[in-house]
Amino acid sequence: MTRTVIRGGLVVTAAEETEADVLVEGEKVVALAATGSSAAEAWTADTVIDATGHYVIPGGVDAHTHMQMPFGGTTAADTFETGTRAAAWGGTTTIVDFAIQSVGSSLREGLDAWHAKAEGVCAVDYGFHMILSDVTESSLKEMDALVGEGVTSFKMFMAYPGVFYSDDGRILRAMQRGAANGGLIMMHAENGIAIDVLVEQALAAGRTDPRYHGEVRRELLEAEATHRAVKLAQVADAPLYVVHVSAASAVAELAAARRQGLPVFGETCPQYLFLSTDNLAEPDFEGAKYVCSTPLRPREHQAELWKGLRTGDLQVVSTDHCPFCFSGQKEMGRGDFSRIPNGLPGVENRMDLLHQAVVDGHLTRRRWIDIACATPARMFGLYPRKGTIAPGADADLVVYDPAAVQTLSAATHHMNVDYSAYEGRQVTGRSRTVLSRGTVVLDDGRWLGRAGHGRYQPRATCQYLG
Q1: Is the overall model pTM greater than 0.70, yes or no?
Q2: Rounded alpha-carbon distances, angstroms, from residue 77 to 72, 111, 322
Q3: Residue 338 gets which letter from DSSP?
Q4: Which residues pair with residue 61 across a beta bridge?
Q5: How many CB atoms lie within 10 A of CB 113?
Q6: Which whole-number Å values give the CA distances from 190 to 228, 243, 295, in the listed order?
Q7: For residue 267, which of 189, 193, 214, 323 has the smallest C-alpha distance?
Q8: Contacts of 437 (CB under 8 A, 6+ apart)
Q9: Whole-angstrom distance, CA of residue 20 vs CA of residue 10
Q10: Are 51 and 9 in contact (CB under 8 A)?
Q11: Residues paired with residue 98 on neighbouring β-strands, in sequence order
Q12: What is the SS3 string spanning 193-262?
């Protein structure tokens, strides 16, 4: 069994920061010891990695990605191979993607189809949530079986009528089932029925540019749906995880629920923290690059999102990585914003953007690791295998250079998409060396990983419950 020692770094977890060396045997972390201590000095290893002047952090856990996802007449541009490789370049070593149940099909068919896409090609470890599109007696029974085999979270949509949309009755039934079997309901909280009316009215009035995507998906309709999801969860006595929270008023709904002691959790994404409706309004159809749902909001919402991350009213930052190329994909919506495929690339940028937030004073280092590694791992039943650095944990480790300055650009990123949502943005910090289960997959700008190294991860139930 190969032994690796990472020496001289500042080990940063959600719990503590300590000058320590880390000993890896095979795929696992087996020990930590104070740098320079007799215990650490006594370690022998096949490989010694010098982390002097660097942080040693757990590999990132991105709990919301959409690789190879069919949507709006096209398919997300990153495959499981390209997307997981890009994740690793950005210091993320585990993703949880979404298998999709099609209306009229079983959950099992959807899950099997996603396993077939991912198996043998992922560069880092992966798990699946299940998108529940068709609530029936048989699909509710299937939820029990899936929880038993490690698919422990189920996404539902209050948006996209005719595609993924579930009405309140179906949502309530699924929440009741989740309350009974330990599954966590993840909610896309936007009032899709009302949004469709506003879309129709905007197009009829000739308002067709990308910026109107943000205007019709009103903040009030995110807040209303968030409130309704909380109340349905309360009726079902079930936990609730609201995905991609973008609006200040939606954060307020989650905060109010949590003050009541309800098991309600919220996720936001880097695009809502760093981008705004200013991007959606970029001329010459450039705004189409920033069309995602929930939409980007006016800049003043960012302060409330950062505050929610500091207070714990928002617990997780995931990417909702769902890339569509500008050329040939986003362009499908020229003359009709409702035809622009919804989604942004970001799986490679999350850890660095959040480190920039540390530099800017929005977050502490430990909170950075909490929202990007530890809490998503706990939320989705991967902790302490993932999300921390401790004996027995998988050796998913990043030697992170906090002083490296880089410029984010499509010219240098590894995502399979022809633009960057953060083009030209300078950030401080980058992953220098990345280990996935003890194997160095990236070192100093050289890719050493391989398709198929990544392993499927069955998950336990949410660790914030019970």
Answers
A1: yes
A2: 13, 20, 8
A3: G
A4: 94
A5: 14
A6: 10, 11, 10
A7: 189
A8: 27, 125, 394, 395, 396, 453, 455
A9: 6
A10: yes
A11: 129
A12: HHHHHHHHHHHHCCCCCCHHHHHHCCHHHHHHHHHHHHHHHHHHCCCEEECCCCCHHHHHHHHHHHHCCC
Query: Which residue reads 């996935």 in tokens?
Result: 436
Q: What is the dihedral of CA 343, 349, 354, 360, to 10 degrees?
A: -110
Of the candidates 310, 401, 369, 359, the one whose C-alpha atom is nearest the C-alpha of residue 16 is: 369
Report d(CA 399, CA 211) in Å as an integer: 40
Q: Burial level of 445, CB count in 10 A (0-12/13-18/19+)? A: exposed
User: Amino acid identity of 281?
Assistant: A
Instruction: Name the region of 206 (left: φ>0; alpha: ψ -120 to 50; beta: rest).
Output: left
Amino acid, single-letter form, for residue 176: Q
For tokens 């309600």, what's the residue? Answer: 264
> What string of pLDDT tens digits covers the 466 residues of the chain?
999 999 999 999 999 999 999 999 999 999 999 999 999 999 999 999 999 999 999 999 999 999 999 998 999 999 999 999 999 999 999 999 999 999 999 999 999 999 999 999 999 999 999 999 999 999 999 999 999 999 999 999 999 999 999 999 999 999 999 999 999 999 999 999 999 999 999 999 999 999 999 999 999 999 999 999 999 999 999 999 999 999 999 999 999 999 999 999 999 999 999 999 999 999 999 999 999 999 999 999 999 999 999 999 999 999 999 999 999 999 999 999 999 999 999 999 999 999 999 999 999 999 999 999 999 999 999 999 999 999 999 999 999 999 999 999 999 999 999 999 999 999 999 999 999 999 999 999 999 999 999 999 999 999 998 6
Alpha-carbon distance of 354 to 427, in angstroms, equals: 10
Most distant CA pair in the chain, distance: 75
